[in-house]
Amino acid sequence: MRFEERVMRVIALVAGYALLVQAILTAVEIVSRKLFNHSLQGVDELGGYVLAITASVGFGYAVVTHAHTRVDFALKHGSLAVRAVLHLLASLVLLGVSSGMLWFAVKTLRASIRLGSTATTPLQTPLWIPQGVWVFGMVMFVMVSLVILLRCVDRIRRGDHEGVEELLQAQSSEQQELLAAGFDEQVAGRAD
Predict the structure, then answer these.
(1) By three-state DSSP, how is residue 126 classified?
(2) What's 169's DSSP letter?
(3) Which of 43, 97, 132, 152 has the highest CB neighbour count under 10 A?
(4) Spatial distance between the Cα atoms of 117 and 54, rounded to a whole number of angstroms
(5) pLDDT per residue over 143-175, tens digit each?
(6) pTM for this structure?
(7) What is the three-class DSSP state of 191?
(8) From residue 124, how far is each of 29, 44, 45, 191 by CA, in Å?
(9) Among 99, 108, 107, which residue's Cα sits nearest to residue 127?
């Protein structure tokens, strides 16, 4: 497993546990409202932050696990060299999209810091806190996208079209299920 895969796997685990905690808090909130007519203030606000942060982390994780949806019907009919060029183009587009998302996230974070923005909720969370973690997820997305692009360029430069295919080929649904099963086993192993 490559370094970026290990890093993104750890970050994805942390994000997954954050979602689990948020789900438990939401369940407690529902029961508390229904049975005791009492609300735990801020659970919905925290849920929004958790979802935004885990989404940004999930983008990078999806890149390293080849889980992004790909329309590859045209790739099947091209030679390895043509597929390598198309993979390179896809890597460039991915880096462009991730960089654009990071630019927007940083712009939003800077505005929140400059204005001293807080949430208009009972918690009055300073928005730079969740936005800072959101930006971290976007930075990871850009870094992973850049590493993939650089590896692709290097393999094309060396004429290793099969290596490009291996690096960027979309996974089949069976491969994704095997990856998920391995991930579940690792989580279970850590719990023991």
Answers:
(1) strand
(2) P
(3) 152
(4) 22
(5) 999 998 999 999 999 988 888 888 777 655 565
(6) 0.76
(7) helix
(8) 19, 13, 10, 35
(9) 108
CA–CA gap between residue 161 and residue 86 (Å, rounded): 11
- How does residue 105 score in pLDDT terms, banded at 50, 70 and 90? very high
Rounded Cα gap, residues 7 and 5, in angstroms: 5
Q: For residue 105, what are its two tokens?
A: 């996230």
SS3 75: helix
Q: Which residue has the tokens 């919905």?
A: 44
Q: What angle do CA 187, 11, 51 make, to 5 degrees?
A: 100
Side chain identity at 86, as an amino acid letter?
L
* Residue 49: both structure tokens together: 């932050």
Q: Return the sign of the alpha-carbon dihedral for residues 39, 40, 41, 45.
A: negative
Please list, in sequence order, all residues whose beta carbon lies within 8 angstroms of the beta carbon of residue 186, skipping any fewer than 6 positions away.
Answer: 9
